[in-house]
């Protein structure tokens, strides 16, 4: 058998797929999951902070549709907790949000604190109302308007 005829009889297999294109995500020795447990569109995929951010964005879109000039120069941020808690002898309540006026070229900012809002809310609907009320109250602080002028449903 010559070398040419030997090579002609070989069957070339398909090149193996890249690891991230395979159906099996982990090893086959029982040490891990073989495929995704749930899809990315299922509710379990979203984290608490991701859901909270989605609620903030929804309220900002709603307010921007009604008052685009109010939100044009305002940045909004979400932090987990306020920078420091009040000392035991202070009678100040826990801050749910805070506003910072424009200063030296830095635009005005509104900061919402996720953990205090989540602790205060009874359910998701209540959390949406608290987020709405805090954003409207901080916008009112920054612009000098009454919160009812910005959103007639404020406080309900």
Automatic annotation (TrEMBL):
It holds the Pfam family Zincin_1. InterPro entries: Zincin_1 (IPR010428), Zincin_1_sf (IPR038555). Gene3D superfamilies: 3.30.2010.20. This is Peptidase. It comes from Bifidobacterium simiarum. It comes from the Bacteria.
